[in-house]
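Students often ask why we bother encoding 3D structure as a string. The short answer is that it lets us treat folding as translation between two languages. Here is a chain of 415 residues written in the first language.
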Amino acid sequence: MQPSEQPDKVNWAPFWKLVLVQSQNSFNEKGVQFILIPLGVWMAEKGIGGGDLQYILSALILIPFILFSPLAGWVSDRYCKTLVIRSMAALQILVLGGMALSLYLEHLTLALCWFSVFTIQATFFSPSKKGLVKDIVGTQKIGFASGILEITSLLALLIGQIGVFVWFRSILDETGDGWHAAAFPTFVFFLCTIPVALMTLTLPKYKPHQVAPFSKKLLYSHFGQLGILWKHKILRYSELGVGYFWFIGGTVLLMTIQMAQQASTNAKDFSGTGAVLMAWLSGGSVLGGILASVICNGRIKMWVATVGGIGMTLGCAGLALTTYDTPLFYALLFLTGFTASGFLVPLNARLQDSAEDSQRGDVIAAGNLIDCLFGLIAVGFQLLMAQLIGVHEQFIVMALLSALVTVVIIKTKNQ
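And here it is in the second language, the structure alphabet:
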């Protein structure tokens, strides 16, 4: 099937199948990540290792994107995107099975190795699933479709983070065994992945674009792909905003984990407190993204990004001035997530829509590279802030950075 710039009539069934496939992939990746974090806290509590795994896991998620994004973009453009998605779904089954077995055998290092393979899978899955969206729905509906894809991914992340924290605590309450509390949910994820992987067999196939053959240069062609973004003003400024979303998201998420650790005395309390904080932050992100997607249905509206940038600036400023564990604090955490997603949706849609069809995979891969660089910086940045200043002071820093980025986006939104 040939991709169309504007299909006469959009068949939404394949799109919703794609949404389900990518949502489960996001859920599983985030689910196993947030299985390992409380497991590390439990292990540290028992004196058998573990510790602050959130920083290690966050880095493991981002490094493969940085290393393999050029190759992933080339694969997305060179081969049928649907076949790539099917291959990554099959790999996910293998990874989750290996991870569940590792946790059953109480082997943390082996589980972390399997988790690293999962992050490589996600690197190759991302440009193919994003690139397939425009092939299915065309230009007119990409603002809505892109927003839905991003927000359902965030919803899956929300369920994965919060649900796993609650599930881990429930099993730990019942058995007192952190290894079992981690291994059993991972085994369930493994079982649920099989039918969704089979569903990828029903996704439509589109003819890939003509691209240059493979060469070793693909392994270090980051700067060439980044050049596509840098030379094109719309792509450059759109990606600046998208990258900042992942920076603030990663930083604030690690800040909530820090707050949960400071407010807890054991692994069970940590899981419960962390679930509450992430529910407010991620819940706001999901609802804000849905609203922004509806507003951008039919046409990309950049004023939504302006409102979102102002909102997340005010949200961070308010959190810096509010006492933790109060209704106002939770409301401001919700507002920050809500407006940050509103900031993301139109910028992400404009980035995808403005890319040439033959370079869309490269543009998406370059964007992923920048997003991950911002995310990796967020890990080190928050770790440094945690050593130097308190959480409220960290929110002041994030408010100032958000204000700066918002000013830049406002000045360049019409370019």
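Translate back mentally: The mean pLDDT is 84. Keep this in mind for the problem set.
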